[in-house]
Amino acid sequence: MLNIRPVSDLRNKYPEIEETVLKTGEPVFLTKNGYGSMVVMSLEQYSALTDGIEMSLDEADKAAGLSDLRYSAEEVFSRVRRGLHGKPEL
Known about the structure:
Strand content: 15-25%
Helix content: 55-70%
Structural class: alpha+beta
Number of domains: 2
Distance between the termini: 44 Å
CATH class of the largest domain: Alpha Beta
Radius of gyration: 20 Å
Order of helices and strands: EHHEEHH
Number of strands: 3
Shape: elongated
CATH topology of the largest domain: YefM-like fold
């Protein structure tokens, strides 16, 4: 179940939010005026979300360093759009 709290709890009940995040391993969603504002998570949670992306970006940087082939932004985004819409690569 999502843990949703007002952003004022970050100031007024920080130790409680910290304990929740660290003990349960789940993020806490904060709202401001009834709308989503931010998410609080542990460093471990954040790393779990981003480590794979960082590794993929590092691999892409290495591959780019080994090749002179470059694509324009339009070429990249048109390929992404075709992939999203199920159209085969040309």
